[in-house]
Design brief:
By secondary structure, the protein is of the alpha+beta class. It folds into three domains: 2-52 and 246-430 and 604-765, Up-down Bundle (Multidrug efflux transporter AcrB transmembrane fold); 75-216, 2-Layer Sandwich (Alpha-Beta Plaits), CATH 3.30.70; 463-597, no CATH class. The chain is built from 28 helices and 15 strands. Strands 2, 3, 6, 7 and 8 form a five-stranded antiparallel β-sheet that branches. Helix 9 crosses helix 27 (700-727) and helix 17 packs across helix 28 (735-765). It starts with a helix and ends with a helix.
Length: 767
Amino acid sequence: MNKTHNTNPALPLRIAHALVRWRLPMAWLSVLLCAALASGIPQSRFDTSLDALLTESDPFLPEVELLAEQFPTSPEVRFALTAPVGATAFDLRVINALIDLKSRFEEIPYAEHLSSLLDFYSPESQTRLFQNPLGSYSQEDLDALLAPALDDRLLTNSLLTGGGSLTFAVVSLWADDLAGADRERTVTAIAALRDSLRSNHPEVGIYVMSDVILQQASQQAMFDDLSQLMPFVILLCVLVICLCFRSLRFGAGILIHTLATCLCTLGFLAYSGFSFNSISVIAPLIVVIIAVANSVHIISLFRQSLANGVEKFEAMVFSLNHNLMPILLAALTTAIGFVSLLLSSSPAINGFGTIVGIGIGFGFLLTLTFLPALLLLLAPPHDNQAGSERPEDFMTRLLERIINLGATHDRAIFWSFTVLGLITFALLPLNESDFNRLDFLGSDPELTSYYEVVGESINRGPLLTYGVQTGAVDGAIKPDFLARLDEFIVWAQALDGVESIASIVDISRAVNRAQHQDNPEFYRIPDTTDAVANSLLAYAVVQSDDFPLRDFITEDFSLTRLFINAAPSTNKELLATDTQLAEEFARRFPEAELLHGSTLLLFSRMDELVTIELLQGYSLSLLLITLCLIVGLRSVKYGLLSIIPNLLPATIVFGIWALAIGQINPFVMMLFSISIGLVVDDSVHLLSHYLQRKREGVEGDAAMAESIRTAGPALSITTLVLALGATVLIGANTLYFQQAAQLLVPIVVLALVLDGLYLPAILRRFP
């Protein structure tokens, strides 16, 4: 061991001695830093809106924001009522439930207005659906209302669907942005009203949904993941350490170090004003796993030295001396992999990379300033360690088999992994990215039930909103313009991706007919701009709150909106329909502009945008990690060779996924981008020990065998920690994290296999 100490570079050895000599002051400073930062954790913020997932680089985002500003909408609470089997929404039991809701909807805080069948006023026929007192209708009278209701396009596109089997009742809220206690109180009141209606009308299916419910459920899912999964991950990792090192003391050291890393990270984020979102909320779990993995290498060599009879202070110097450069390289390369996510314009991806990058920084800092003092304090007396079982003793047989297997079947291993890598690389394009916002809603049964019931009843796709900007006062109500807009609408409705369209054209024709004693000949666009304006102003006098004129056109009549009910379609089909509409509109209206007003289209476009940004970040991180390895290993050749086994784990796993599943969430593609930074730890430690042995004059195969024996136990433990920690994500509340775990676990396990078998095979060919 003395020979090893003498041949090490002087700088790491001096740093190791300094870290041990000044361990107590640095440990106390670390404790003070941790306490100061931890005090900010109660100020942590959570961004529960799905908009936090949106990429900010989409060129249509300004158009969406412009239309949202011109046509502001109030928050809504949507009740979905389903009729008993064999009945329709005009069944007396459903109507009684609606009457009950109408009398009680103001129990919801900030409730302002209720839209339902009971008060529906048709803009086209200028009549009410229920023209008599509600209590006077018999079942026969209600049955007679079904046919005219199903014939009304605006009604079936808004409040009635499924052939009349489901009806919506929409409560408008006057508060624009509910948060904190106000949102919680509102959600509680909504749930109480829903449960009461269910109790009073047991034969009617009653479901409810609202953005405030989604936001509250999302925040609760975040709290659940952090409060339930994080302690479980920490305890699981500590138990693994205790088992592998056969020491409760070292397990306690890992636990304290990991908790300190988490407290520093979360406190720093809270003080900096950072907001967790649906993706970044899981990042602290990744920080926990990485923090445990970093400290394992320090403990492993420290434990080995103690078992060899070395005094504990010198054993710590030995461990720090040999691990300083590898853990620095591992922390730096891992951080680069995650920080590369900052190139993404999605706040969700950006935030995820920020948290893990900061966590890696605190983890590395505490590994050097806090962990040595902690381990020296917890280390058993010297006499109890000499000759005791080493942590690698129970892995010796497995490691020796790996070494022998690699030497015996070198050619087969090299070509098998090379061919597998090439084949799976060719399969990568088969992965199709498809983003579904519902994947982030969590596993709340009420949310699931609402979307299942509504999805079964609605036989159409999503509602798309477009704005038509003429740029001139009264430009959107000129008869010539409306006539051409009507022709465009007729053309658009013939597309496979479009089911129906509502526009200002429908209102102008309907009002014109009503102004002429319902003469069918006048169901047309008025002849002059003034006549159109007068008809719209007349409509504004008698308009219903369900379909106000302000939803269709601005006050100066320069900007109008189109409401397009799309046919059921995938993201790609939706975007194809959007492209057709935009190209045809540009051809027909060179003087006007078609504005995209649906965030749904932005989410659909994310697949391509996020993929491009992640690939750009991946390319940059690959370049920076390669440069770091070249500098850290002091070898261009070995720095380049180390990249090969680090690229293959994600390539193989995603290639097989493409063949077996073929569908992937764009946010899960983050794993491909960050995988090289996550798995490079194995090759860094193996190559560091390998090159050190070679520089001491040890022959290639023997040097690699010794590096596997030395670093193998710690690498096996860190891989086990990473794999088990990632497996815990299967218990998360969202499908995204479950899918991420299914991919991350095989990536980290395969990385260890490749570094133990494939890396030595490569080095034999490029000694």
